[in-house]
Amino acid sequence: MEYSKFRSWGAADSIGDQLTVVTTSPKYLELKGSYNYFCYTKSWTAKYQGVYKRDKSRERVEYMAQLKNNAIDEALSEFGNTEYIVVIEAYYVSQPGLRRLIEDYFQHGYWRDSILGASTWFYDRSRIVRRTAFYDGWSCPEYRDYQSLRPPSLIAGIVRVSSVGSCIIFPRNVWIRGARFEVPHDFPEGCHYNHFCIASGMPVYLDMNAKLWQTSKNNPDIPDNRPWKKRLQTSLGVRKRIKCYMSTHS
Q1: How confident is the model at residue 50 (pLDDT cuts 50, 70, 90)?
Q2: CB 3.0 to 4.6 Å from 147: which of 133, 136, 190, 239, for a disulfide?
Q3: Alpha carbons within 13 A on the beta-carbon side of 87
Q4: Domain 5-248 of CATH type 3.90.550
């Protein structure tokens, strides 16, 4: 194919060519592993080529949803033996959390009738004490504001949720039955991942063991190591208290 590059790795794992990893990217990305891999590079416009665009407009969600739908359709056309599909955002492709997600999905029996999603995290360095914070709260509202002082290794387990995003694995029959990525009815409360999970009719789980990370180096929305004075102000809620005082005394 002219734009969408793909390749099939050797069946080093027991699942072999029954699993296909799908991503979308303006340029082809390599991925090391032992499963089918399909990187969809068509239809990208300059407006949306920034990896960390935080644009939550309906237009962008419709655009990203259609990219995923097209990518999966073409991937299934190339890899006809596919029984399980992984959809992963491009900036997580090289992270080890992908492999852990696949292992947990098959080792713990979720492959029978469920959708399993990796958990996305970042280190919140805006305060004196660093916190481990959940990132993709849009697609997984149960953890929208979740933060913990515990080290990442102690945040573990697999939990039932309403939807998951960023990196998910599901059976092919979900696609055959017609579930697609679309803008949800309650937009902007949810995104295309929320719609897909609901439309699947399957139980949805979040894998805290399979962690994917955002960093301030590549994502301007992630708090970096701020000066000590600013971190202290954030920890004490100085700005918030000043705004509250001004609003009550104006």
Answers
A1: low
A2: 133
A3: 27
A4: yes
